[in-house]
Amino acid sequence: MNPPQGLGFAMAYQSKNLDHLGLVAGMCQEVELAKIIDEQIPSYAPDKVVSHGQATVAMILNGLGFINKALYMVPKFFEDKPVDRLLGQGIAPDHLNDDALGRTLDALYTYGVTPLFSRISQHAAGMLGLSSKAAHLDSTSFHVDGQYNHEHPPQDEEKVIHITKGYSRDHRSDLNQVCLNLICESQAAIPVFMQAASGNASDKTDFRRIIAQHVLQLRNHLGVEYIVADSSLYTEKTLEMLGAHMPFITRVPETLKEAKDAIFKVNPDEMISIDDAYSYQVVLSNYAGVRQRWLIMRSEQASRGEHRTLIKKIGSRGIAVMDAKIW
Q: Does residue 141 sit in the same domain as residue 241?
């Protein structure tokens, strides 16, 4: 671009680094992230320049490019960025100081990050045209270093996350951890519900509580027709709750006596073949007073593997085991 001729001054040009942050900020604008936050958590500070929504977007952008730094370093991160394009006209890097960001974090905590996230994600799913019949419920864990509060149980279980040892999905049972419960819609796998939990939280208890509190909301806002989850969903109390409100798809725990009996009674020769590898049989159940259809699957490959394992065990124990007619 050439500067205009005949003027008595020279035009100044500056370059700013946009990098990947333009895409992130664009998506935040597309789903109206800042707008929703400002509607739910308005700021009444007389000297406010940055709203809670804009400050939240700023921290998201900072977290994707300047992690593991204190809040007071955020203005430094935005010094070479086009802040007005990313966050809005009139915002400068020094407006994103630790006081403004700290007030936003306090406001988010007071409102509740779980209900706010649900509202934002469900709005985003609607804008993207995602209407899912199935909602997938699951949990994961993240290990952390340090002692934290594991020796002092929280007084308020609803507010305080207990960082402690529990069942470790990432195979670090020696470290303390926190858990995260997620519900994702089935079309794009976008989380529509997210809630942190203590490191020793039980999926069976948490799944039942989440369903009791949020299943009707998912049905009304996203058109969810059934829940999909692992065997932690399959408890008598949870099934009684679901049976009155929503169908479900899950795996029946093989530790259940009824499941053991059903598998024992199946005749492999009477199972319906899907292909050369799998066959199945349908069994009706009324466990927990809820009418269900169980699908018992047989894998030819797994069956051959179990047969080879059995032969090895018999061989290692000698003729005495064979004389016991283990077959």
A: yes
